[in-house]
Amino acid sequence: MLEKMKYCRSFEAGQTVIWAGDETSFVGSVVSGIATLTQTMEDGRSQMVGLLQPSDFVGRPGRDGAVFNVIAVSDLVMCCFRKKQFEDLVHSTPHIAQRLLEMTLDELDAAREWMLVLGRKNAREKIASLLSIFARRDASSSSNAREGRLEFDLPLTREAMANYLSLTLETVSRQISVLKRDGVIQLQGKRHVIVPDLDRLLIEAGDDDDGGMIV
Amino acid sequence: MLEKMKYCRSFEAGQTVIWAGDETSFVGSVVSGIATLTQTMEDGRSQMVGLLQPSDFVGRPGRDGAVFNVIAVSDLVMCCFRKKQFEDLVHSTPHIAQRLLEMTLDELDAAREWMLVLGRKNAREKIASLLSIFARRDASSSSNAREGRLEFDLPLTREAMANYLSLTLETVSRQISVLKRDGVIQLQGKRHVIVPDLDRLLIEAGDDDDGGMIV
DNA sequence: CGACCGATTGACTTGTCTCAAATACGGTGG
DNA sequence: CCACCGTATTTGAGACAAGTCAATCGGTCG
């Protein structure tokens, strides 16, 4: 059913997919590439409030105007549905509403966890937290899971990272240099990151889930 | 149907309603009082990630463990349902899942808007933003809507405000003093706030929706 | 009255921002 | 293949907003 309705749209890096305030006629999900959800103030200050990766859902069934800007960070392919049709489908297919609810609850948890990052972590921990997100994503999807060692490409520029972490790009750059100096990460070029020890990175991020007590 | 299942629980101010990590056997909504959603780090730093007011929903159908602490800030009455029963109801009544989805989307928007507050606003704007939330809530529910003038009681201590805004309580106190000195607000005692001009407050908060350009 | 808790205020420290300059990188055209 | 350009990034020096530590004040409750 969804298959029949869907169509694809492509966006170039830097292109705005949805403007805050605009009426959107479609919902969809990311097929490939990365996009950001951004909130902006009148004086130009802006804050990234979400990072959209493949399989993430975009749009809000039952809502008219978008609240945030959606911007393609890399070249982006989305799989879209006309909103009206999609909403009808939600009404006629209870299972879909439940699935959407689950996804939205996950996003809400992620947003709230990010509030802790923004509010209470220092610059070094913020960078480590962001790197952890990329690392985890790659750890699950790729094959390079050799005993805690990981590598991946940063999908964001320093500026975009700064915007997500609520820092300046200078501070991002400095803290990446410090983490490199301290051996938490290694760099190949500006974008390719090697994490020799994922646990170490997680501890640096301040979420030492694994119970790594620093006595 | 819901009526038959519901039961009430009361909590005293300061009491923890739900511990992060615990399995919760109920979902519910706030009847009266205020509660906070709080995220904590191992070293004790914590960040409030949500403020629960009357009519707000608590709990996550389909999820086992809670992710955040829920703490009663004032005396609190909640109307609860056993989670299992509620989930069955969600499955059998499509309309409920749709309603929950809408509420969750609203919460997600609110969380993301708060990320802008945490990430990009300075202390003065943060305080003004928080006061705006209380003011708006009271403006809609009460009768004191005399030409932009409003008054209300702060439901939170300075410490709790600091925790929500990601500031220290000293900074909260100082900025409240400054807003008072500048005539943006007046205080009666420590908790009762008078807002002579709501538009002014909104401008101070940085979200000048009304287009109030400061040339 | 005295103890206690929340709030205010002050003096000093510090992490991050700001402004500025230098450097590396990727792509383009000769 | 190389020189050149624009953009992304790094690095430095100084400024400033908010944090920290500490003292005081005010109200409330036993």
UniProtKB/TrEMBL annotation, chains A, B:
<dbReference type="GO" id="GO:0003700">
    <property type="term" value="F:DNA-binding transcription factor activity"/>
</dbReference>
<feature type="domain" description="Cyclic nucleotide-binding">
    <location>
        <begin position="1"/>
        <end position="107"/>
    </location>
</feature>
<dbReference type="Pfam" id="PF13545">
    <property type="entry name" value="HTH_Crp_2"/>
</dbReference>
<keyword id="KW-0804">Transcription</keyword>
<dbReference type="GO" id="GO:0003677">
    <property type="term" value="F:DNA binding"/>
</dbReference>
<dbReference type="InterPro" id="IPR036388">
    <property type="entry name" value="WH-like_DNA-bd_sf"/>
</dbReference>
<dbReference type="Pfam" id="PF00027">
    <property type="entry name" value="cNMP_binding"/>
</dbReference>
<dbReference type="InterPro" id="IPR018490">
    <property type="entry name" value="cNMP-bd_dom_sf"/>
</dbReference>
<dbReference type="InterPro" id="IPR014710">
    <property type="entry name" value="RmlC-like_jellyroll"/>
</dbReference>
<keyword id="KW-0238">DNA-binding</keyword>
<dbReference type="InterPro" id="IPR012318">
    <property type="entry name" value="HTH_CRP"/>
</dbReference>
<dbReference type="InterPro" id="IPR050397">
    <property type="entry name" value="Env_Response_Regulators"/>
</dbReference>
<feature type="domain" description="HTH crp-type">
    <location>
        <begin position="121"/>
        <end position="199"/>
    </location>
</feature>
<dbReference type="InterPro" id="IPR000595">
    <property type="entry name" value="cNMP-bd_dom"/>
</dbReference>
<protein>
    <submittedName>
        <fullName>Nitrogen fixation regulation protein FixK</fullName>
    </submittedName>
</protein>
<dbReference type="GO" id="GO:0005829">
    <property type="term" value="C:cytosol"/>
</dbReference>
<keyword id="KW-0805">Transcription regulation</keyword>
<dbReference type="InterPro" id="IPR036390">
    <property type="entry name" value="WH_DNA-bd_sf"/>
</dbReference>
